[in-house]
Specification:
The chain has 343 residues and is an alpha/beta fold. It has one domain (2-286): TIM Barrel (Alpha-Beta Barrel). It has 13 helices and ten strands. It has a ten-stranded mixed beta sheet, with helices on one face. Strand 4 (106-111), helix 5 (122-135) and strand 5 (139-145) form a beta-alpha-beta unit. Helix 4 (89-98) packs parallel to helix 5. It is globular.
């Protein structure tokens, strides 16, 4: 699936933000043009892809946000919008009027921050409350873990209070190679899993299923935890490294936000989405051939050899390589040098 950035402007300043190099490095006024919207719809359909994710920054900041969503739906796409839920009343009224009924073709993932651990202005909290009240049945909550003492009580409360979809999309905050953000260190992965498992009773009681985004390592999950996760996820459990393929308003493309300055290309260099995927899969393979995973024991790990675990995210591997002397493949060294020069 492709992630399409409608804008590079955002309304929040999250300490863990792994998209900030893209947000800070792009003009604040940059927005996806209608010409490129049409091109992307044609490109994806020609590639046999009928799902698209709309992101930012904050995608609802695009002045034509609602019309763009409706256009993709009219072209036969299922649209997922990743949002903070922070928008003005006029935009929310448009969403409620034209999008609330699109239950078979549209979903929102609202990234929620803990009001105590990641405090926000009251105006922002009120805006999120209005959004969840209006669009709750279409909303899947999302939460990015960037500290080991994270709390999920406020997520559970929001699911019940607003009637959100009973699935929690969990992400681990990743490092941005060559930049600085708050993220989970590899040594703390086990503590994150233990903390998550401490909420097993609440997940079960409320019938909320946790879902992993990329970066979680299988080796840090014990048998009791893996049994619980497998059961509550109904067998849909992955310890991989995703290939989301982020496409910017100027039609640049890269593997994911933390790697926005690594092997960045123009979408116009490719004829199909499959060609793009093959290019970045080859890139990831060359990196993993040099460093199999985020832990030394990933080399030779049976979970990785049997493809049950990716060994952590590619961005995490490049982050480990950043402090090394130039001992890797030349193409990797060149990419790391470009990341260092961008600091």
């Amino acid at each position: 699936m492709a992630n399409v950035l409608l804008t590079t402007s955002c309304v929040r300043h999250c300490p863990y933000c792994f998209a900030k190099t893209e947000m800070e490095g792009s003009p604040t006024s940059e927005r996806l043009s209608w010409e490129n919207v049409v091109y992307l719809a044609d490109f994806l359909l020609a590639s046999g892809e009928q799902r698209v994710s709309l992101l930012g920054g904050e995608p609802t900041l695009h002045p034509d946000f609602v019309d763009i969503v409706l256009y993709f739906i009219e072209r036969g796409f299922f649209v997922t919008v990743f949002t903070s839920g922070v928008m003005n009343r006029a935009k929310l009224e448009l969403c409620e009027r034209y999008l609330a009924s699109k239950t078979n073709a549209l979903g929102f993932v609202c990234n929620l921050n803990d009001p105590e651990q990641t405090p926000a202005p009251e105006k922002e909290r009120e805006s999120v409350h209005r959004f969840l009240t209006a669009m709750g049945p279409l909303v899947t909550p999302g939460f990015n873990i960037y500290r080991t003492d994270f709390r999920l009580e406020f997520i559970f409360d929001s699911v019940v209070r607003y009637g959100l979809r009973r699935h929690l999309r969990l992400g681990i905050a990743h490092p941005i190679p060559g930049s600085a953000n708050s993220f989970i260190q590899p040594a703390d992965m086990g503590r994150v899993i233990d903390r998550l498992h401490s909420y097993a009773e609440q997940f079960d009681r409320l019938r909320i299923t946790p879902g992993f985004d990329c970066g979680f390592p299988l080796c840090r999950v014990n048998n009791e935890q893996i049994g619980w996760l497998y059961r509550v996820s109904q067998g849909h459990l992955s310890f991989g490294c995703g290939m989301p393929l982020d496409i910017t308003p100027d039609m640049s493309i890269y593997n994911c936000f933390p790697l926005s300055n690594y092997q960045r290309r123009s979408l116009f260099e490719f004829n199909t989405l499959q060609e793009v995927q093959a290019f970045y899969q080859k890139m990831a393979h060359s990196i993993r051939a040099e460093m199999p995973g985020i832990f030394d024991e990933c080399d030779g790990c049976i979970h990785r050899e049997e493809q049950r675990c990716a060994g952590g995210g590619v961005c995490q591997l490049l982050g480990r390589m950043m402090s090394e002397p130039p001992v890797r493949l030349q193409e990797i060294n060149d990419g790391l040098a470009a990341l260092r020069s961008a600091v």
